[in-house]
Write a structure and sequence with these properties.
Blueprint: H1 2-18, H2 23-28, E1 33-35, H3 44-52, E2 56-59, E3 65-66, E4 74-80, E5 87-91, E6 98-105, E7 108-116, E8 131-134, E9 141-148, E10 154-155, E11 158-162, H4 163-198, H5 202-220, H6 223-227, H7 233-258, H8 266-292, H9 300-322, H10 330-346, H11 355-440, H12 447-468, H13 478-493, E12 498-503, H14 511-530, E13 537-543, E14 548-555, H15 573-581, E15 585-590, E16 596-603
Length: 607
């Protein structure tokens, strides 16, 4: 993209150094006078007589655009003092509907060819815009020109070149046009390559936009007249408006399908859809013009609403930029294009500007389109690259999370398996060994002793089942499941040593918190009975004023010296991990032979 702008700067510099001021063309308007009447029926002989009688008395003003819309023929005259070499007379603009030139010298009248867009089959100009060759006369020569036009404004930038100057002019003009067409072709190749790689069909809308403006460049510069692309007067009349409407539909569909609209900016997307719909309706109407070969609705009714909608598209982009939906640099291309277009609407350049100035004016709109399309292409590439990097990072993150998840599952499985094995060994191993010894020792092999061992074995078995059992818990049945668990342990121990108080009114806990708290209470209570030999256990859970849930498990067991013993030795490591997973913390208060108090605090939310 940067290379393109450097190349553009180099071409502009070369033109500024090599383009002559061409005083003949700059000063030509000063010798031009209009006939003081408009009349379709005047013959050239009558016009010559009117000149002799002084009726060509309205001087040409120093401005390019004139209002000739739907009026009768306009005549103007200028004099070449000595036509001692062939010269080329031109209108710098490809849309003059009718023009005819007459040469009068030494009482001799010569008629040049007639150029009419309504008679396109016989349209034979010397160049892409109306041009006549004035052959040398070696005498003072009068040039009479008859023109007609039906457009809103008509460009009357007049050029008068010698043969050498005309060749130089056409070479430079062709260079600029060729450069712009090559640029748009390069854009199409780049977009096509992106489409083949990414398979994003919204890129085809953008490719259509670039292609349509390439055709618009050809028609605006009159190249289609030289190539005989269009075959009817209706086609010639609507070709530019048709291409611009199709281009608007294409770029509008690209905006709608490619921009990352948010809920906040969804109304802009709806507005763009309405605008695109209107332009599409205009396209259908103009296609019907071509099919019927009849413009049954004045083009003004299509042209004016389209121009009114253009500022709304610009405003929509400013809002999207402000909301950071699209980057700021895109506004440069949009503003530049709109400002140049508004200048065409409301500014009337002077006739005495240099040729370089007119080269810039004639191609400024397409240079702005080139900048705009270049910025949009840069935006497309940056978005695709960003998406690609995001996809790669997400893939890496997904792989990392999957590996971590698998490792965590294996680690948890291993921990739970070891824990279960430890519980089975600690609980059942001793009883099985005692039962074996009792059965082998015939002297002490009494039924009462065997029954005592089996009862203890069964009790440990029930403890283990209670600690492993996990009911389907949610916020609605959380408290009832805890109460049921405490009652089962009391039944198992044939006592009422487990006291509980759960006060969590109007509190909704996530399922994960319910499960983790249930597991923690189960494990702490079972450990207090089995390992601490506690005869009294109090379980309290309540909500504090600062919106925290407090769980307290207090027992009168044998306790332990926390400074001399690791937490994992008493099976509390898994409890701490569970509480940390729900953003809580564990506080342990214990002394040997003085019981244990474990206080757990967790936030009453899921953030």
């Amino acid at each position: 993209m940067r290379k393109f702008y450097y190349l553009l700067l180099v071409i502009a510099t070369l033109f500024s150094c090599t383009t002559n001021q061409n005083n003949a063309s700059q000063e030509l308007y000063k010798s031009v006078f209009f006939l003081n009447q408009k009349n379709d029926d005047l013959t050239i002989n009558e016009v010559v007589q009117l000149y002799k009688s002084g009726d060509f008395n309205i001087p040409m003003e120093n401005k390019v655009f004139y209002d000739l819309k739907d009026k009768q023929a306009t005549w103007f005259h200028f004099k070449i003092d000595n036509l001692n070499e062939d010269k080329f007379f031109s209108f710098w603009g490809a849309f003059l509907e009718y023009g005819k030139v007459y040469i009068y010298y030494n009482d001799t009248l010569k008629e040049q060819n007639e150029l009419s867009l309504k008679d396109f089959k016989n349209y034979e100009s010397q160049y892409r815009f109306p041009t006549w060759k004035l052959e040398k006369t070696d005498a003072p020569t009068h040039v009479f020109v008859k023109i007609k036009d039906s457009k809103r404004v008509t460009s009357l930038k007049l050029l008068l070149f010698s043969s050498t100057e005309f060749i130089q002019f056409t070479q430079k003009d062709s260079t600029i046009i060729g450069f712009l067409l090559a640029y748009f072709l390069a854009m199409l190749i780049a977009i096509g390559s992106l489409f083949l790689v990414k398979k994003q069909y919204n890129l085809l809308w953008y490719a259509a936009y670039v292609l349509i403006f390439s055709f618009d460049l050809i028609t605006n510069h009159g190249i289609d007249l030289q190539l005989n692309i269009f075959s009817t007067a209706t086609e010639h009349s609507i070709k530019r408006l048709l291409f611009q409407s199709i281009g608007a539909v294409s770029i509008g569909m690209f905006y709608i399908s490619f921009y990352p609209f948010t809920k906040e900016t969804a109304y802009i997307k709806k507005g763009l859809k309405f605008i695109v719909g209107f332009y599409f309706l205009c396209v259908l109407i103009m296609v019907s013009f071509v099919l019927l070969d009849n413009i049954y609705i004045p083009k003004f009714y299509l042209w004016l609403p389209q121009r009114i909608l253009m500022p709304f598209v610009l405003i929509a982009h400013f809002i999207l930029i402000r909301k950071k939906v699209i980057p700021f640099y895109l506004s440069i291309g949009f503003i530049l294009t709109l400002l140049i277009y508004l200048r065409f609407l409301y500014d009337n350049p002077k006739l005495d500007l240099s040729l370089l100035h007119y080269f810039i004016l004639d191609n400024s709109f397409y240079l702005a389109i080139a900048v705009e399309t270049g910025l949009i292409l840069f935006y497309i590439i940056s978005q695709l690259v960003k998406s690609e990097f995001l996809a790669i990072n997400l893939q890496k993150e997904n792989l990392t999370l999957r590996n971590n998840f698998q490792n965590n599952i294996l680690e948890v499985q291993e921990q739970e398996r070891n824990k279960l094995l430890g519980n089975v060994h600690d609980s059942f191993g001793g009883y099985l060994e005692a039962l074996k010894l009792r059965l082998l020792n015939k002297k002490e092999n009494s039924p009462d002793k065997v029954q005592e061992i089996l009862d203890a074995f069964y009790k440990e078995y029930r403890y283990l089942l209670n600690s492993l059992y996990a009911p389907k818990i949610n916020s609605d049945n959380f408290i009832s499941n805890l109460i049921e668990f405490c009652n089962k342990l009391n039944q198992l121990t044939n006592s009422n040593h487990i006291k509980h108080q759960f006060v969590l009114k109007n509190t909704k806990l996530s399922q994960n918190k319910c499960i983790q708290l249930y597991r923690v209470i189960s494990e702490l209570t079972t450990n207090a009975i089995k390992h601490a030999n506690a005869s009294e256990i109090n379980i309290n859970m309540f909500l504090t004023s600062d919106n925290k849930i407090i769980l307290e498990v207090i027992d009168n067991g044998k306790g332990f010296d926390i400074s001399q013993t690791t937490i994992n030795s008493y099976g509390l490591n898994s409890i701490v991990d569970r509480i940390k997973s729900i953003n809580g913390y564990v506080e342990i208060q214990t002394e040997k032979n003085k019981g244990t108090k474990i206080k757990i605090s967790i936030p009453n939310n899921d953030e």
